[in-house]
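Q: Joint fold for the lines below.
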Amino acid sequence: MTEEAAKFAPLIVVVNMAFIALGLIILGRVLTSKPLTSGVPGPRQNVGEFMLDFFVSKAREIGDTRIVRVVAPFTATFFFIILGANLFAVLPFPLINRPPTSYFGITIGLALASVVGTLIMSMWANGAGKAIKHLFWPNPMQLISEITDVLSLGLRLFGNIAGEYMTIVLVTSVVAFGIPLILHVLGFIPAFVQALVFTLLTTSFIAGALTHGEEKAKKAKEPRKSKGIQTEVRKGFIARLRGHGEEVAADPTKSESALAPSVEVSKEA
Amino acid sequence: MNDTIALAMIAVVPIAIGAAMAAWAMRKISVSAIDGMTRQPEIAPQLFTAMLIGMALIEALCIYTLVVTLMLANKV
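A: Joint structure:
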């Protein structure tokens, strides 16, 4: 069985990835089959916004709406591709249940896409010269840090998912009844957590790359401005804690911009 | 001693030490995070994401040792 699976390994990965892509396309099609935000939001819009709201709120912590529109689709795509790939481990079918993320090539490719995408976003936001200069100038170790980012992201995902898959295979080869069910149920946890961790780390890389130049410029020009922004953020956070109605009353532009990017994201998906 | 047996005995050392130390560090993180969450439930989601990132960074070190162990185990 293992040798057979090893012989067909590239084919299995391609088929799995095709399944994931098909699932994403069907999901996007189902979510956007009717025009959204017409009157009372329906269940479809609720599902779409529930799934994408997390990424939009994480991206909004970085910066303004212009950044959210680029960052949220990027991280959401990573999350759903990695989650779909990880969940192949809990399928009960014998040959296709090897998750694509348990191959080192796939995970290092995803990590490369994340880091290169971060670099491109940094070029888009701060200008190409500034972004490339940032790799070398304050300390040349930044370039090494990018390479280790790729390695750590890829290795973390690969190690977790491959370890989980190997555990399932080993236990199934010893006891084929009952016990593997527990491992399959437990397999949901690393699948979700690793997808979430990959996404959160990508978001934090992007935050570091995008806000680096801006913070420096702000500090040089008006050193007291940052404190005011922080208190503004704190006020908004307290208003959000007190309830949705007060938040809308306190800051109507923010609640509108909260809806706009998520709608656009689900239309693009 | 046979070379294969020696390699097999050496191969489990990194993952044992790495898992033990990572478990110790993760215990510290989770204790602090739960402590903070019970003290201030309002910022529990932020603490949870910070806890996850910290745990992921520690887990990466453990995964490196797992990779080393797998590379050694493939030679047995």
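Q: Anything notable?
A: Residues 3-75 of chain B form a domain with the F1FO ATP Synthase fold (CATH 1.20.20.10). The mean pLDDT of chain B is 88.
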